[in-house]
Amino acid sequence: MKTISSNKLKIMKRAIAGHTVTAVRALLAILLALGGIGATTGCGQTSFFEVAVSIKSDVPGFPKNCLFSIYSCVATVSGAASDRFPLADKACHTPLDYSLGLFQFETDSDSGNVSFKVEIFDGNNNKLGEGTASSTIKAGGRQAVMLTITPDTTAAVFMACR
């Protein structure tokens, strides 16, 4: 039987360890690639909607000075996701322009349609108008949504501001 010197044995151990590390790296690369495939299909990823809210500006009987009557806004989400929440006071409390700004909504749903409704109210919680928009979920991505509110020109508060 042939004996192996301790130096050769150390070199052989390193070579075997190197192959083990290489095999582990290859396995990790395969697992990461499979994880990447899962990630591109949207499984469990958060999808975002960026909703730009504005008030229809060309409504007869609704001059810009009526905007001061708006006190609050409430968003309702339905479809593949659901929620109801007030929008930030700085956007809806006596806005200075027809654009109320942008809000972001996120969902873990991978597919389907999401509908948005935004209602505007005066200080006494009387409804002054609403707008709706919908969009399809882009799994793991962002969708821009434009929502335009049509003011209710028959609302008493709007009639008073003309």
Structural write-up:
The chain has about 160 residues and is α+β, with helices and mostly antiparallel strands. It has two domains: about 40 residues; about 120 residues. It is about 30% helix and about 35% strand. The protein is built from three helices and seven strands, in the order H-E-E-E-H-E-E-E-E-H. Strands 3-2-5-6-7-1-4 form a seven-stranded mixed β-sheet. Strand 6 and strand 7 form a beta hairpin. The longest helix has about 35 residues. It is elongated and about 50 Å long. The N and C termini lie far apart (about 110 Å). About 20% of the residues are buried.
Fill in the keyword field for this structure:
162 residues; alpha+beta; seven-stranded mixed β-sheet; 3 helices; 36% strand; elongated; disordered N terminus
